[in-house]
Write a structure and sequence with these properties.
The protein is mainly α. 63% of the residues lie in helices and 0% in strands.
Length: 345
């Protein structure tokens, strides 16, 4: 912990102990206790501690960011997201729970950032082929909605140019932070673009910019979106769910793709269970799946492939999907009337 000393010789303590956000900013802006590269690390750590300590006091955070000034606020958010993503907040062995708590506190604080700073940060994080640890902050539901929407606009525009899985995974990551974002952006982008983004994101294992943790920073949002799509009901989403299921399922049989197979099957299982009968019917015609391979590829991966078998899928098919079909098939009314033997008279 950095040592603070006022002109009078008193030690006021770290930023988190400051009675106001303005005072906390003043302590962080005093570079005396933070010399050199090590000082920068300690200053960022003190900033994160102050954010966590006062995350539920919006006025405090607003005064903190205002007191820091736009340039320092922007830099500290960047440094803090990188530090937390790399789990250096309390050493390399800090727990995943600690990391998650810090990410959520930083995310909540973005609601109090000056608008110009928020806009700059969101656009920089969403820029083309940018592997940015700030994504781990913006994927939290607590993050500023305006920042998340700016990020999605920027990252989706970048994807239009690059068709890169890096840009696609970033979009999926932040899109998964709120089901309402999925609904809104599906309406804006159209079903085809949503399917293209998700398919590209799912074509490779989730990127992890920090490498040290597979929870807080792993860009697995596209996998989560599959489960969230399953919750969307109504005719508006029939085509979207069919396209996403078809294109993602075909990845399981594509030699050029390298998806996280087991997780992809798990996500597709959620989507399949949400409307299995309709998906089977739609994927059985030439219009929805000209290749006639999507459903079979998914079922093979989920039921027969040892690397991706899903007990959940097997249970659903045997206990929920097949019995009604068997009953319908064996129902005489469904088969039609059968003539009995002719009367001897």
């Amino acid at each position: 912990m950095a040592k603070f000393e006022s002109p009078s010789g008193e030690t006021p303590g770290p930023a988190k102990e400051a009675p106001t956000g303005t005072e906390a900013a003043a302590r962080l802006n005093n570079r005396g206790p933070y010399p050199g590269s090590e000082g920068r690390i300690h200053r960022t750590r003190d900033f994160v501690d102050a954010i966590r300590a006062h995350q539920n006091t919006p006025a405090y955070l607003q005064a903190l960011y205002k007191g820091l000034g736009d340039k320092e606020a922007e830099q500290l958010i960047k440094d803090a997201s990188a530090q937390v993503a790399h789990r250096r907040t309390r050493g390399e062995d800090s727990s995943a729970a600690e990391q998650c708590a810090a990410l959520k506190a930083l995310a909540k604080s973005t609601r109090q950032l000056p608008p110009a700073v928020a806009d700059t940060l969101a656009k920089a994080a969403g820029a083309q082929d940018s592997v940015n640890t700030l994504t781990a902050v913006l994927k939290q539901p607590e993050a500023s909605e305006a920042m998340r929407r700016t990020f999605l606009d920027t990252a989706s525009a970048a994807f239009d140019k690059s068709e890169s899985f890096i840009d696609a995974q970033k979009v999926g990551d932040v899109l998964s932070s709120d089901p309402e974002l999925i609904e809104d952006f599906a309406a804006r982008w159209g079903d085809d673009k949503v399917a293209r983004v998700l398919t590209k994101a799912l074509s490779q294992p989730p990127l992890n910019p920090a490498q040290l943790n597979k929870q807080g920073t792993r860009q697995d949002g596209a996998l989560k979106v599959l489960g969230q799509l399953a919750q969307l009901q109504g005719p508006r989403y029939r085509d979207l769910k069919t396209r996403v299921f078809r294109d993602a399922a075909l990845l399981l049989g594509d030699d050029k793709a390298h998806p996280a197979r087991k997780e992809l099957v798990q996500g597709l299982t959620q989507l399949f269970k949400s409307d299995a009968t309709d998906l089977i019917q739609r994927l059985s015609n030439d219009t929805s799946d000209p290749s006639h391979k999507a459903l079979g590829t998914f079922l093979h991966a989920g039921l027969l492939d040892d690397s991706s078998k899903s007990e959940e899928l097997e249970s659903f098919i045997s206990s929920t999907l097949i019995p009604p079909l068997r009953k319908e098939t064996l129902d005489p009314k469904a088969l039609g009337e059968v003539d009995g033997p002719a009367s001897p008279d």
